[in-house]
Design a protein that fits this description.
By secondary structure, the protein is of the alpha+beta class. It has three domains: 6-50, Uridine Diphospho-n-acetylenolpyruvylglucosamine Reductase, domain 2 (2-Layer Sandwich); 55-171, 2-Layer Sandwich (Uridine Diphospho-n-acetylenolpyruvylglucosamine Reductase, domain 3); 178-286, CO dehydrogenase flavoprotein, C-terminal domain (Enolase-like, domain 1, 2-Layer Sandwich), CATH 3.30.390.50. The chain is built from twelve helices and 13 strands. The strands form four sheets. The chain has a five-stranded antiparallel beta sheet. A hairpin with a 2-residue loop joins strand 12 (193-204) and strand 13 (207-216). The chain is globular, with a radius of gyration of 19 Å.
Length: 289
């Protein structure tokens, strides 16, 4: 039984939007969508419109004060990019951990975000890097904070508004800034994070001048841990500080038991280890430039 009836390879954003408004489903790498259709999680679509040939969605370049990454750029291309390595270490580390090499050759950052899973590795890294998302629909284009895209597990404003995710804007890395991403996953079976965390820091001498922190899964949608961030700002790195941030983090997020991944208690245990690891790595990296 065919999984779809019509397949269109769009060459431009207007063409993709036309097909989208006619009821087609968007596909880029397809590593999530095709699997969910096969498993019955998603109903078989009448039509698919492939956006991987649209030039704007494949751009990876400096635009003013930002690094722009197109939504259709494959994960392996992002991880191998010198521009991304110089400006977004957490995203490089996250992209290198998604699936296996074959998946990363096909899967896209836009798909990772648009799938709207609470612990999507690319999404968690982008949140800590304070990324903005550009989308376009028949109503026009818009740029918004990443958190504004998510409505719930597998639910986003992109799909709800019949929009096309164009790409992401990340602030260029400045002196004394750095980031890190850490994750724990099951060694077999479910290829999803038990827990992941991304940290971005800015140093000022021996203190943390600014910090961004994201952890997943921390609730029904991807989330910046803003309360925990405030505890880091202006402080010196110490075990006491890590303990304080960890306490606030557990108050801010909801770590639940998953029958497929881990218990809430194990996730709480991991959260402290990954938090300390990511903070210390980002701190050291920020001192190297």
């Amino acid at each position: 039984m065919p999984l779809w009836k019509n397949y269109y390879l769009a060459q431009s954003i207007p063409e993709a939007l036309t097909r989208l408004n006619e009821g087609a489903r968007l596909i880029a790498g397809g590593t999530d969508l095709l699997l969910e259709i096969q498993q019955g999680v998603q109903p078989p679509p009448e039509s698919l419109v492939d956006v991987c040939n649209i030039p704007e969605l494949n751009s990876l370049e400096i635009r003013g004060k930002d690094l722009f990454i197109g939504a259709a750029v494959p994960l392996n291309h992002i991880a191998a990019s010198q521009l991304v390595q110089e400006n977004a270490q957490a995203l490089v580390e996250a992209c290198n951990l998604i699936g296996g090499p074959q998946v990363r050759n096909t899967a896209t950052l836009g798909g990772n975000v648009a799938h709207a899973l609470p612990a999507a590795d690319g999404t968690i890294a982008l949140l800590a890097l304070d990324a903005q998302a550009e989308s376009i629909s028949s109503e026009g284009s818009s740029i918004s904070g990443l958190e504004e895209l998510f409505l719930g597990p597998r639910r986003s404003t992109i799909e709800a508004n019949q929009a096309l995710l164009v790409g992401f804007y990340l602030p260029l890395r400045k002196s004394s800034q750095a980031s890190a991403f850490r994750r724990v996953m099951r060694p077999q079976g479910v290829a999803l994070p038990v827990l992941n965390i991304a940290v971005w820091l800015q140093r000022k001498k021996d203190r943390i001048a600014d910090a961004h922190l994201a952890l997943g899964p921390s609730g029904p949608t991807p989330l910046r841990a803003r309360m925990a961030e405030t505890v880091l700002r202006g402080e010196k790195i110490s075990q006491v500080l890590i303990e304080k941030v960890y306490t606030i983090l557990l108050e801010e997020v909801h770590l639940r038991t998953s029958p497929y991944r881990a218990s809430a208690d194990y996730r709480k245990h991991l959260a402290k280890i990954l938090l300390q690891d990511a903070i210390e790595i980002a701190w050291e990296r920020a001192g190297d430039n």
